[in-house]
């Protein structure tokens, strides 16, 4: 008697949404950052060297922050209003014509604002999802937070293979922009943008569809001071050390051995490198270490240019862009990677 193929967590759909306001890097610099960093040498060069051509914004920082920082409460009120609009757009697009009655779980992450009930509940309510949907919110983990969301979705599908799971990452970093006049903040203000991206996942027999095979996580405990995200009365503040790319490059090979080894795969088996574009130096350092040419991470470079670093959303935007433009062939392997405070390195092995 032949056995049925094992079921795998499988991507059914993916869709992103962005706020309607889109500014080029030049418009953002001339409209606000030039004023903020007028006394900072080389500020314009540092901002233009981020590799970002255009970004989307949940509010217009040129107007909202022209007179200085706003209080945290003002920022969070905008997050609640605008965040619901953009997050729900993303989820609704991903659901499309799928049977919403089969959605049993909704897992979501954001780093750019907090409220209770959160955007996940109000999105579920707005879209008419059933009232007994299981919600999991992943907060304050930084740019790698989409990976815990994906793992939670994978676990849910494994436990209940007949259900669908929504996995969402939403980031509205511009709502936490600050006018601290130093080179670290100038780079950060030149990098980050706003977006939401949602996946609907279900189960399918092995080899049918885009499937998430396994994940791996590493906390580099001795480097926790290199990246952070902290609350103040006048908003959140990020720290980002220029040493981050070097640390990531140093650990990338060992990390990939742990991610790929259990599947008896190596770097040569990976066709698609879907790397979180935390900034150009991160992409360059990883490409150098793995001996990849720029085309191997085309989707990452495209997202950096056209969206900026959208925090926890960015890895999902890279996946969406790769599926849309690169059109991976059935059976090809891809590696998704994200990085954040800890330093924490997250990876996901995908088979297309």
From TrEMBL:
Domain named Chalcone/stilbene synthase N-terminal: residues: 8-205
Record GO biological process: polyketide biosynthetic process
GO terms of molecular function: acyltransferase activity, transferring groups other than amino-acyl groups
Domain Chalcone/stilbene synthase C-terminal: 218-351
Pfam hit, one: Chal_sti_synt_C
Keyword Aminoacyl-tRNA synthetase: no
Stored Gene3D superfamilies: 3.40.47.10
Keywords, alphabetical: Transferase
Active-site residues (renumbered): 143 (acyl-thioester intermediate)
Family as reported in the entry's similarity comment: Belongs to the thiolase-like superfamily. Chalcone/stilbene synthases family.
PANTHER family, per database record: HYDROXYMETHYLGLUTARYL-COA SYNTHASE (PTHR11877), TYPE III POLYKETIDE SYNTHASE A (PTHR11877:SF46)
Protein name: Chalcone synthase
């Amino acid at each position: 008697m032949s056995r049925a193929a094992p079921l795998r967590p499988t991507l059914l759909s993916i869709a992103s949404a962005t706020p309607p306001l889109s500014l080029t890097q030049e418009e953002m610099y001339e409209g606000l950052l030039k004023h903020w960093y007028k006394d900072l040498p080389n500020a314009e060069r540092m901002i233009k060297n981020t590799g970002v051509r255009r970004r989307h914004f949940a509010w217009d920082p040129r107007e909202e922050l022209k007179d200085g920082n706003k209080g945290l409460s003002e920022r969070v009120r905008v997050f609640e209003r605008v965040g619901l609009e953009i997050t729900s757009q993303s989820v609704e697009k991903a659901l499309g014509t799928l049977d919403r009655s089969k959605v049993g779980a909704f897992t979501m992450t954001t780093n750019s604002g907090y409220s209770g009930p959160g955007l996940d509940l109000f999105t579920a309510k707005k879209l008419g999802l059933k009232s007994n949907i299981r919600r999991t919110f992943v907060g304050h983990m930084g740019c790698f937070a989409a990976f815990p969301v994906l793992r939670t979705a994978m676990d849910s599908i494994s436990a209940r293979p007949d259900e669908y799971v929504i996995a969402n990452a939403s980031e509205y970093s511009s709502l936490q922009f600050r006018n601290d006049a130093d080179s670290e903040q100038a780079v950060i203000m030149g990098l980050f943008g706003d977006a939401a991206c949602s996946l609907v996942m279900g189960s399918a027999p092995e080899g049918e569809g885009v499937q998430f095979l396994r994940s791996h996580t590493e906390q580099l405990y001795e480097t926790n001071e290199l990246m952070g995200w902290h609350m103040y009365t006048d908003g959140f503040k990020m720290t980002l050390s220029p040493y981050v790319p070097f640390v990531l490059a140093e650990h990338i090979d060992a990390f990939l051995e742990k991610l790929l080894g259990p599947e008896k795969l190596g770097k040569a088996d990976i066709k698609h490198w879907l790397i979180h574009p935390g900034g150009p130096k991160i992409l360059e350092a990883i490409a150098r270490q793995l001996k990849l040419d720029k085309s191997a991470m085309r989707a990452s470079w495209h997202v950096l240019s056209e969206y900026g670093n959208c925090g926890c959303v960015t890895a999902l935007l890279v996946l969406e862009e790769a599926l849309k433009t690169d059109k991976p062939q059935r059976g090809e392997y891809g590696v998704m990677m994200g990085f954040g405070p800890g330093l924490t390195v997250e990876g996901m092995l995908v088979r297309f």
